[in-house]
Structure formats: C-alpha cells, structure tokens
Fold these 4 entries.
Entry 1:
Amino acid sequence: MELISDSVLAKSNEQSSRARYRRVRLYTLLVAGLCGCGGGGTQPPPPPPPMVSSVTVTPASASILVKATQQFAANVQGSGNLNPAVNWYVNDVQGGNSTVGTITASGLFTAPNTVPNPAQVTVKAQSVQDTSKSGTSSATINPENVQISVSPTSVSLQLSGTQKLNVTVTGTVNQSLSWTINGAPINAATPWGTIDSTGLFTAPSLLPASPMVTLTATSLEDPTKSASAVATILATAGDITVTITPKNPQVVFDGSQSIQFTATVTGTNNTAVNWSVDNNGGTNAGNITSAGVFTPLTFGCSNVVPSAGIHAVSVANLGAQAVTTAACRGRNKPADFGHVCTRCDFDSSVPGSERNNYP
C-alpha cells in the first residue's frame, strides 16, 4: 500500500509541475506580446521639435493711394507642428500708426491720409513662434489724383423719358459725387427734369425753353473735378410736330402790350393745342389765352421777370410740344435779357408811361 501511494504521489507532483510551467510560459508570452519585447521590436523615436525656417509676405510690393487698403498675407514655413501665427509691423511699429499706415492682425493695411516721408513703407510679418524669423513687403503710398468721367456724354430722349448715366471716379478712395442740372442742385425744382443720386435722369413732361440740358457730376473729394453729359429733350411723339410763331419776341412788361402766338401742328388731323406760360425766375410772368394771346403782368421796376416760356402742347399727343420765349422790356428801350434792375428811369418820350427797367 505504501508503494502505491508513493507512486501516485510522484505522478501527481509531476503533473502539477508541468501545469505550473505552462502557466508561467503563457504569462511570459503574453507579457512579451504586450510589451513588444517578445518579437525583438523597439519603440518609435519621438517627433522632432517644430522649427520655423522662413516667413514670406505677399504681395512682395504694392502701390496704394492714401486712405486706401491693401490685404497682405504671411506664409510661415518650417518643420514639425509649427505655429503659423505672425505679428504685423509697419516700419517696425507693431500695428503701425496714423503717419505710416496701420495694419490689423489679419494683415489688412490701411494707408495714411497723407503721403509719408519717405513715401515707401515696410510691412513686416514676424513669426510668433520664432521672433528671429520674419518676412517683409514694401508699400508705396501715392497722393490722390482725382479723375471723373460720365458716359454716355450725349443723349437724346423724349419727354418723360429716362436715361442712366454712368460715372467713373479714379485716383481716390472716395467715390462720392454730386449732380447738378444746368448748374442747379438736384433737390431744386427745375424745368429741365430730375436726376437721382445714381445718375438716372428723367426728362421733364413739359418741353423747356432750352431743350439741351447739361448734367454735371462733381467729385466730393475734389470739387474742382467734374464731368458732364448733354441731354437733348425731344418733343415729336407719334410723328407729330408742333412749331410756334413768332419765335422769341419782345414785349413791354407794363401790361400795355399783348402778343398773338400761333401753333402749327403736323402729322395729325387734330391741330388743337393747349397753351401755358412758365418763367425763368420763379415768378408768374403773364397770362395766355386758349387762342394763344399772351399778355405780361404789370411789373414794378424791382420785380420784372426777364423772360417767359410759352408752351404749346398737342392735344392729339401730349408728347408733341413746342416752346418759345417772350422777353420783357421797358417802353422804347432795348430789351435787357436777364439784367437785374438797378434803378428806374422815367421815359419822358412817352407821356404818361410807367417807370421802366433800365440800367
């Protein structure tokens, strides 16, 4: 019995040893696999530190008007996970100043209001990571040289028609301008039509005494620079033509004289017209009958209207019109077109006459 027990015990010990060996071997293999040391592998080396090699600024040079802007860009080159940020300088002043120009963190340069001395400034981008690395560009600041043009320079359009005028302003950042019509501002009431701030001209509905209208655009940056276009107003709608006789007569302004106007209408069987009167000074100049008889009002020396516009408008087509001018004058004296009354003289050659408008 003892011999059997010893044999069994020895066999059991041998099996336990083999089991422990397998467990140790398995553990060793697992640890080697996890650590990468069981197959002879090694850990990769750490990445190199980031390094800036150069900074490039574009554009390399620029020509800029005073008050204008220019966008610059910086390209930071090097190796590793480098920082691409830069600080911007103008003539070595971070952010610049009002004398040499200013620049934002994004590289937007604004030229000064006047040309610096010298006119060329240096724009620099300096690496934030390595301040020993930077790139530069040169900017030349130029004075304003305002030029203005209008197109088209001449147009013809019917009554109430429209025409867009295009304005080009160069040599300045300020593109603002103002318009005038025959020298009058666009917010004033005129007989020559209207023009808005965009250059859209609308012809009048009533033919002015002078059908040629000068439209002028003037730079607000430099009021000495302007350009003009001439618009000719047509009044021959529907192939109908209206003419008035007499043309541009003179009439005594004291109300003692009348003028018979006649309208000739062609292109239609309906020859009727409507008559009306306007003036060039904002004051009523007189009256005209439906038959075309014009009588000026009686004026004192101080308020004489120098001329009156006489209009004939076709009944068949309101776009067909004619206009003439009646010039007011003193008795037995030559007409004084547009002259401002400076004193009144009594005309002794005409007994009982009124005081008249003589210089």
Note: The CA atoms of residues 50 and 134 lie 16 Å apart.
Entry 2:
Amino acid sequence: MKDSEKSKLIVLKQAPVISSDGINEVAKRIEKIINNLDIDNQVATVETLKSLKEDKSFLNKEFKTLEEQRKAVKKAVSKPYDDFEEIYKKKISSQIKKATDKLSDKINSVEDELKKAKEKKVKSYFNELAQSKEIDFVSFEDMGLSIIRSTSEKKYKEQVDVFLNKIQSDINTINVLPEDAEFKAEAIAEYKQTRDLNKSLKVIQERKKAKEIELEKQKQLETDIKAQEQTQEAPQAEILQAPEVEDYREDSEPVQQEEPQVNPVAQPVPFFPSHEPIFTSSDPIHSTPEPELLETTIKIKGTMEQLKAVKAFLLSHNI
C-alpha cells in the first residue's frame, strides 16, 4: 500500500464549526465594567472592604457564566473525536500492539541467548587470565560488567585485561616494599578485601604503629613487675639483738642513745680507734697481736627499740 493511500484511511470530513461572533462584544462589555470599577485607584480600607468584595463577586459571577459556555463548546467539539479514538484503539492500535509485543518477545529471546553466549566467552577469558596471573581472590562478577549485544566481545576482553592487570600491579607493588614478610602478608590480605592499594597500606601501617606502641607498653609493664617481684623476694637482713655488755673503759661516760635517722639502709659506721688503752698491761692477752680491721655494710630491719639497741652495741665495741 502506497503512503498516499495510507494517508486517506483516516480523514476529517468536516471541521468543527464554532461561532465566536459574540466574543468581541462580550470582551468590550467586560473591559468597560473593569474600567468603571477603577480598581487601580481604589483604596482598601475598613470602610471600602464591603464594596471591594461586591466588585470581586460580580466579576467572578460573569467569569463563571462564560467558562460554562466555553466548556460546553469543548465537550461538543471533542465528542466526535472521543468516539473516533475509542474505535481506533479497539480495532487498530490494540491489534498492532499485540503483534509487536509477540515479535519483541521472540527478538529478546534470541538476543538473550546471544548475550549469554558472549558473557560465557568473556567469563572464560577472565578465569583463564586470572589463573595465569595467580589471582584467586576475585571473580568475574566482581567486575560488574553489563553485557549488551551492541558491545563487542573484544571490547569486554579489553576491560578484563585492565581489571586484572591493575590487581597484579598492586600485588607486585606490595611485594617490593622495603618491609618485612609479616607486613607484606598483612597488606596483601587487606588488599584482597578492599582491592584498594593506598587504603590497604594505610590500614596496615596504622596497625603496625599501634602494635609497636602496645608492645612497648607490655615490655615496660613486664619490667616493672619483675622489679616489684625482686623487691618483695629480696632476703631480709638478720635483725641483730644487742647483747648486754660491760664497758671496759675506765671512767667512761654512759653511752648516749640517739634517735636514729629514718633510713631503710644503714650507713656504714666509720671506725675511730681510741687512744686510751682498753686493757691494762697486766692483762694476760695484752700481748696478743691486734686483729686486722675489715669494712662491711649491712642492712638492718627492725623496730625502733631494736635499732637503738644495735647502735648501742656497735658504739660499745668501738665499731
């Protein structure tokens, strides 16, 4: 069928006839009414409020009457078209739409098979390339490719190359870092989760720094604990009991017992030999050689009375 013949199938035999002869006269009448109202110069006050409302009500009433006439004309003109459109949709457009929908289903079925075949080839290429690069922590689905018929298989394979090459490059970057094996292993493990090189390295560096701080704290804590244990386990010095002795020096004055300094560690007492003879010449041991003097430091722990007794004992023996 020729286009000229097609255009004659639906034609308008008679144009709608709408008489607008009275519109001009109505327009002039409305214009005169509005001019007489002199709205621009009216002052709105409490006294003029009633008059303003009456003017507005009058204009609304006129407008409502004209609107009813316009809608009546539209309805009369639209009715023939509405009747025509209902017949057209029922006998023509619905049949064509039904047929085209069936054709679309058949076309989509074939195109879906073609897309699945293309996706299968691209996925197989992805798996082979990933295996050759020893990349086992990503899948084809991670790429998020949307396979469409208009994009060639070659184009999709190029996208696979870019995706896997970047991952391989990132892994190589981690492996050549001047870090120990533990750091690299943790960085690769983190990268496998994020596939973000910079983010992975930042996370591991922060983790390493935090670990070093905590390790230093633990070492200091262990040192403090050992020092405390050694202090508690240190053997206590023997508390000496001062024996009652008699002062052999003649005309010696009683020993004055002084209050000791509060000091947990006893200071060594210097030895000052007395110029007065302790023994008389008639003493049978007078000729015994003088013993060798030795020096030592002892730590004494005891009550105040015991410390005083020790001090008195030492002084009484010129120690």
Note: Helices lie at 3-6, 21-37, 49-132, 153-175, 181-194, 197-233, 304-316.
Entry 3:
Amino acid sequence: MKSIKKLLTGLVCSFMVLGCLTAVKADEVKYVTMNVPFADFYAAEGISAGQMETDAVSTATTSKSTSATLAPNTYNDGTVMLGVKCVVAMDEATYATMSETKGEDPSASYYFEDYEGTPAAYKTLTLTEDGAKSFGPYTGEAKDASCISVTEYTTTGGYGDYQITLDGVLTAGTINGEETSIMGVVMSTTDGMNYAMYQLNNLWVGTRVTNAELAWSVVGGQNLKKNHNSSTELFFQYDMNGKTVSNIKLLTTNGIYNISTNLVLDPYYIGSETVTAEITDPTTLAISVPSALEDPTVTVTYKVGRASTTVVSGVSIVDGKVTLADLPETETSYTVTVSSSNYAPIQVTVTYGTPALDLAKANLTSLIEEGEALVEADATNTILAAHVQEGKDLLAKEDVTTDEINELVGELEELIAEAKNKAETEEPEEPVTPEDPETPVTPDEETTTPDEGDSTDETTTPNTGLYANASFGVVAMLAAAVAFVELKKRK
C-alpha cells in the first residue's frame, strides 16, 4: 500500500514538474510584428518553382506601393514593396539574437517591434545552426469560407490576363462580418501547382469597389504592362495559361480562408500567327486573324479618360474588313478585341485620326483670323490684339505643344466672344440734323379760341416754331417794363 502511495505521489510530482516546464516554455514565446521579405513569407507555403515574384515587387506607381490602404500589411523602401509586415512568433533565444541585428530602420527587412497580446494568426521564425532564418507555414484558425464566392471572371479587365472578384471579401476590411486584413494569397490549380499572389499587382482592395479583386498575367497572354499598361515593365507572368483553378487560400490577420472553386481559364492562343489590324479610313478596319480561331468576331473601343466608347461590338469579319462609324477626328488609340469560341480574346491597339497638335494648330489659325478682323473693326481692343500676336508667335515656335496651343485657344475664344458681344450691343449714333423752322407768327396774327358752346372741335394753336418762341420772349420783356413804370408812379 505504501508503495502505491509513493508511486502516486511520484506521478503527481512528475505532472507538476511537467506543468511548470510547459508554463515556462509558453512564457518563452515572443510575438513581434516583423518586416518579412516576400520570399521568406511564401517559402513554407508550398509555392511551385518559378511561381513567385522577386523580393522587391514594383507596381510602377510609388504612391500606391506606399499606400497603407492599397498595399495593406506590406513594407517598402519608399518606391517598391519589399515584403509583408506580419506577426512572427519566436523563442527567447531567437528573440535575443534578432534583437542584436534588427537595427533602427523601420523600413528594413527583419526589423520588428513587440506585439502585445496573443495573435490569431502568425508565422514562426527559427534560426539554423549557421544563423539562417527559417519561417514556418502561416498558422491560424481555419475560417469558414462558405460566404465567399468567385465571380465576375473576365479576360478583358485590363489588369491581368485573368481577373476575378472575391465576392464576400469586402474592401472595407471584413469577411462574414468579422474584421480582418489579407497578408497573402496562394492560388492552386488542379495539376498541383501553387502560385504566390501579391498586394496591388494581383490583389486589389481599392475603395472604389465593394469586394476584393484578383488579377494575374500568364505566359502566352496579353503581355500587359504595369501602371495601366503605360509602363515599360511587364506584370509577373505565371505558368497558368488555360488551367483550372481549384483553390484560393487567403492568409489573413484572423485566420486562413480556403475558397474552393473550379474555375476553368480560357486558353490564350500561342501559335505563330498574329492579329494584324489597321484603320484605313473612317469607315474601314482591315484585319487578319490566326486561322486557328473559330468563329472570330471583332469589337472596337476607345477611351477618353476612364470612360470607354464602343465603336462596334461582336462584328463578323467580311473579306478581311470590318465596317466602322463615328470615329473621332482627333488621333485616337483604339483597342481591337478578337473573340473566338476556342481561345481567350486577343487584343491589339491601332491608332487613327489627325494628330492632336495639327488639329490644335488649325483651330488656333482660324481664331487668329477671326481675331484680326475684330481688331481691325475696333483698334481700341488692345488685349485681343496682343493675344492674336501671341497666337502667331506660338505657331512659329518649332517645339510648341498641344497644351500650350489649347490654353491660348481657350483665352482667344473668350476674348473673341466678348468682342462680338460688344459689337452687337453698341448701336452706331445717328447724325443730329436741325429741325425745319415753322412759319413765323406775324404781329397781325392772333390766336383764336372757339367761343363757348361752339360746336366745332377745331382750335387754332399758337405757332411753337423758332420765331414763335422769340415773339413770346419779347412780349414778356414788354410786360415786365410796363410793370416797372407803374411801380415808379405809385412811389
């Protein structure tokens, strides 16, 4: 019996010691918020070879790369994104070693600050014997992803060869009503390949859309360039042409969402034939397409700012031509999209129209002529005259720009409108001519009035002409003289 008690006592003590050791081990874990380079962040996420971009991820627009809203949970060097700012767990020994080398630059890789509390999701850092850093897979609760669906699939979104919307992943920062923020995205295909996706270049959480969007380019695709296709730098191209997407994994601040899907990607034509197109006149697009394309149709569009205008849509090619209408006079860049039943649409760009500078010069020349005519009619309009001369000087300038001309055109249009308005409102003065004198009143003439009760309506009125006025003045003077004499007599 005593032996049993000793055994039980020993077991209890052993459990107590183990409990203490466990508590100590838990206390040794340190959580920090660390700048983790992209390569390190995705190293343990099963990314297939060659399917992850380099450490520095450029977007060709510095302001977006450094935006906390558009590039959440990333750090940068002021120009490009360098990696993910995420919670990292490490033991005290690793913490001590990392503290010695972290430096003071908050934008440097591996810089970290202490994290208060226990995170819902994190990566674990360990150091090898030679001091190399090793980050484990993203750790976090498996979240319910049934509220998320893949929608709005397109190959013509302009931001990638393929583009989708993650309906339910709100750009306001919530999923299924729970606040969260995306650290990274791993896309998988049915052939077992895994692909690393990045903020901005692939993941878009802009405030102009309700749900997050994913866009990506592939080998053999449209060769889209960064910064709305205006940069010289191509988007990173994945080996995913025509494959089927089976899963999209979201690594978030509060856990992991696995979005199951069966998205078949339209294959891009990679044969030797190409699409050639040319607008030969305002009503004709000459075009040839690869013979492998089945049931090809053509859509032609152009943009003014962000607004897109469709010239023709889904039109068949007849004898190598497509009929157009209502093209702008100004030189314009048109997107020609060739759709088919067996390949993703192919897009090419063509330009047609009078160069904007030529149109601006013609407009300015017309205004100069109109302004000269107005100045000739009103030499006092020196302001208009000065602007007319400025216009002549601009036309003579060899390196004049469209913007310079258009700015002066706007000023001339206002001045010409004012000059025209002045000419219309100011009526010419009529010459003053003396009135014809009326027949003078002679002393013998008397003014007669009809007798009272006379039935006639006719009256003889005094002459109101020049001489009549003079006679009236003389009579008044005589009356005044008589009144003066009478006053003297009384005195």
Note: The longest strand covers residues 81-90.
Entry 4:
Amino acid sequence: MRGIALDVLQDIGHRASYAHRPRNNSASGTAGIHKLRHHGFQIAKRMLQGDGMGVGFLCLALRLLRLRVSKFSSKLGNPRLLRGNRPRKSGDAVLDLTYSAVRLGEPLLVGQCPPWVPSRTSEHSMTQVRCTLRPGRRDDAPLLAELVNYAGEGLSLYSWSKMAGPDETGWDVGRRSAAREEGSISYRNATIIEHNGNAAGCLIGRGIGSSPTAIPSDMPAMFVPLQELENLALDTWYVNVLAIRPQFRRAGLGTRLLAHADDIASGRGHRGLSVVVSDANLGARRLYERCGYKEAALRAMVKEAWVNEGQNWVLLMKAVG
C-alpha cells in the first residue's frame, strides 16, 4: 500500500453457506434416500464450484448415486422421489442437479469457468454459462468502486469518505480513483470477468518489487500493518482486489480469476503470488487455500472507526509453478 489512496483491498466477501432441509412426509425409510440426495448435492455443488476433483471419481460417484436413489425409491413405492415423475420446484433440485452434473461428461478443473448452471428462468432446462475475461475500461469505474469496496469489506468506502470534499461522497472519490490512468485501483490494472455478457467481478493486482517500501511517518496507522505485510511478499504479484458481485457468486468465477492471476505472475517472472485477507473472512481464506495459498505472516488490525469482525490481517502466499 502506498499512501491513503491505496484503497485497500483484499478479501472476497465470499460466503460459502448453504442449507438443505429434507422433507419428512414420505414413506418409512425415506430418510436414507434424503441422505443420499444430500450427498449428491454436495458432490455436484463442489463440481460446479470448480473444486478440482478427479474425472473418474465425480462421474462414477454421481452416476452410482443416481442409480441407487432410483432403485431405493422404487422399492419404497414412493414415485415422488423418482426423477421425471414429479414436478420440479425452485430450491428442490437436488436430484436434478446431480443428474445434470453427470450429463456434463467431465468435471470442472481448478481455474475453469463452470460451463453449465441450472437456469433461473426455466425449471426444465439447463442454460450454458459463458465466462470471458477482458481488460478494464474507464467506463467500468462505477463497477470497480463497488467491487473494491466489496473486497475491502467497507474499508475502502471508509477511507474514501475521509478524503471526500464538501460537495462529494466517498463513492465519488472511489469512482474517480478507478477512472484514473494510474493508481492502485485504476481501471488499467483491472481484469473484468463477464458472466453471459454481464460484468460479474474483477481482479486488480500489481507486481511488488524486490526491495521493501519505506513506511512514511505520515502514513495512516490503519494502513501500516498492511504495508508491513506487503514488504514481506517481495517479488510477488499482489492480488490487491478479487471480488465477485453477490448475484454471481458460488459459480467458480473467483477461482477462474485466481487462475488468471497465476498466468500473470508466471508470465511476468514473479516468484509467486500474495494476498492479504482479514482473519474473519473465512470464505475468502478457504478459496485462496484451495488454490494453493498458504499463511505466511500476521499483523494486528488498526481499525480506527472502521467496523470489522477481524482481529488480524493475514498474508497468504503461493509459489509460481
């Protein structure tokens, strides 16, 4: 971080929670079926998120699961559990999701965009999802300000608001920063990921040199621990911002952007990658660790009036190759 305009940040506000509540209005013994359906959903969910599981395991496990559910449902005389014999409802697509995952023919590998997701506009069809990466543009500035603030869990807006003039808001400062030709969150440093033609998230990063940056005496105290951690990640490509808009989350887009970050770091000759996250942002940390990042150092947060559940900043690093 270089000065107060560095606009912090690092986390994905990624949350990986989900709930599944099986119904209890079926014949005796159906609890086992629901358990199987639950496991099928879990496997398919990991597949759609690009968890990197083996082709043979996923396809075989999912197909066997579907056959077992159909067999047990027939024995129980409960046609409601048979796929195709009951209408589908939103939120009740456990078997259908498992079946659709098998139909794909191959699992997703880490770094790939999910090629298919259940359609939100039709209950009986699957919609192909196209993910594309493109460079940021100046007209992306409002979106980038939004995503930077998501990544920083509100720290960016807090900082911008302190810099705002009498006739502007913190958002005005953030959008102006993103529209600049230079700077930590300049659109020139951004890669936008599109989901079926809609801007869904971004990656903003930069290379850290081989020498540590001196910390000036007038640097705001809340940014000092961040700069200290950055000085421990020399000669890496620093993931300054990784964020996905809420309506596009849980579709593997963050993983795809991190794969792109790997390519950038390798192509520019860096020895690795680095990122700083809040210790309270468990979802972001799981994502990074799943993609090969490991904890390297901690620094206590200085929050001032910024409200956050975390207590420490965590430096995560990953070697190239």
Note: Strands lie at 116-118, 126-128, 131-135, 190-195, 198-207, 236-244, 272-278, 294-300, 312-319.
